[in-house]
Amino acid sequence: MMLVFTFALGRKKDQMLIILLIGAVILTFIRPEYSLTLLLSIIVVSFYVLYQYLTYQHFKYPIIITLLIASFLLIKYNPTDGQRSSIAFCQHYAYSLFQFDLWKEDPWSYCELAMSKDFGSAKTISEALIANPSKFLGHVVRNILILPKELGSLLIPFFIGEPGNNTVPVQVAAYSVILIVLFWFIGFFFSLYQGQRNLLQKCFVLIYAMPVLVSTILIYPRPHYLLMVVPFLLIFGIQNLREKFGLLRYKAKFSFPIKTILVASILIYVTPWRLSGKSGLTIPEGQAGIHGKGLCTSVDNLNFLNHLNFENREMVLLSNLGFISTFLPKDMRVYHHFDKNSNFDEFILRNKINLVWINSALLNDLNFRNDSEFKKLVIGKSKGWKRMNIPNCPNDFLLFNF
Questions:
Q1: Least confident of 98-112, 189-203, 382-396
Q2: In this structure, how many other beta carbons lie within 10 angstroms of the beta carbon of residue 306?
Q3: Pure H helices in 29-124
Q4: Cα gap 396→297, rounded to integer Å
Q5: Where are the alpha helices (DSSP H) in 219-297?
C-alpha cells in the first residue's frame, strides 16, 4: 500500500490515478476485501473522467484504458467470497461474546449456535443487521472497546510490556494513534467542505484504508487487519499534524519516496519478533524462534501425523485441528469434531475411526465433554485404545486403536 502511494504521489493527476487504480487491482488479488478499494477507485476515477469530458478538458487515453481494464477485472475475476466474510463474521461475533463472558462455548466451532440465538436464520452480515439491529450494534460496540488493546499490543515493543496485557504503555500507544488518525479524518471532512487542494489524494487514502476499517468495526480488530492500515494512516496523520500546527518541522525537504523509505526503515528495525526477544532485521531460526519455545504449532502437529507408521494400515483420524487433509498422506482420512452427530462409540464404529487427537479444546467441546463414552476413552478405560505422546506438544496426545 505504501509502495503504491510512494510511486503515485507527486505525479500529475492522471498519472497518479493510473497508479492508484493499478495498485487497487494488485491489492484485490492479494486480499479479497480490497475489491471494495478497487470498486471505489473505479467510481472516483469514472467521475473524474466524466467531469473532464463535461468541462471540455483535455484528458489522455491511458487513464480511460486503465479504467476499462480495472473494471473488466473486477467484474470478470472478482475474488470476493461472500461465504468467507460470513464465516469470519460468525466466528468473530461468537469470539467477541466469549471475550466478554457472554458465550461459554468454543467460538470457532459453535459460532452458528451464537448466530442462530441472536440472529435467527441470518447467514450474512447484512442479514444479521436486519434481523437484530441491537445485537449487531452491541457487536460493533464490543469491537470498538477491544480496539485499543489489540492496537496497543501491535505497537508496543517487547521490552516495554507484554503484548497481551492492558498496561499503561499499551493504552498510551493505542490512544495516541487513535487520536492522530481521528484528527486526520476530521481534516479530511473539512477538506470536503472547503474544497481544499489535494482532496483527490485524501479521498484515495480513505479508499485504500476502507476495507480494513470496515473489517475492524464490523468483524473484529484483529492485529493482522490493523497491521495493513495503521502505519499507512499514521504517516498521513502525522503529516497532517505537521501541516496544521507546524509540528515536527525539519530543514531538509525530502521527497515523499525518501520519507517513505526512512519511515519504513525505522518501522522494520523497531518492530520486534516478540517471542524471540530481538529487534532489527534478524529472523529467528526454526519454529521455536518464531512461535516461542514449548508452544505447539500446526507444523508440529503435521510433522507428527506425517511420520506415523502403523504398517500400512488404513488410518482414520478424528481431530479439531482444522482442515488439514491437504497436508496429510493421501491414505489418511480425517473427520472433524463437528462431524459427530451421535454418541461417541457409535460415531467411532460407523466411521471406522482409529486415531483420536486429544487436546484441551476437544475436551471442552460441547459435542464431547458430556459424552460418557468419550470420557471413558480419555481416561484409558476403552478396550484396545493406547496413548501416544506428541513431541513439542506436552498438552496434546494421540489415542490409537490397531
A1: 189-203
A2: 11
A3: 35-54, 61-76, 82-99, 111-119
A4: 11
A5: 223-245, 256-270, 286-291
pLDDT in tens, 199-225: 787 888 889 988 888 888 999 988 777
What residues contact residue 3 under an 8 Å CB cut-off, 6+ apart? 23, 260
Bridge partners, 318 (sequence order): 335, 356
For residue 335, the SS3 value is strand
**Considering all CA atoms of the chain, what is the largest pairwise distance in Å, rounded to the nearest integer?**
86
Which residue type is seen at 177? V
First to last CA, the chain: 54
- The residue behind cell 476530521 is 186
Q: In a 3-state reduction of DSSP, which class is residue 19? A: helix
**Count helices and strands in the chain by DSSP H and E runs:** 17, 5
- The side-by-side arrangement of strands in the sheet containing 397-400 is 332-336, 315-319, 355-358, 397-400, 386-389
Strands, E assignment, 137-207: none
Q: Average pLDDT of the chain? A: 80
pTM of the model: 0.66
CA–CA dist 96, 146 (Å, integer): 9
Determine the Cα–Cα distance for residues 320 and 365; give it in Å rounded to an integer: 9
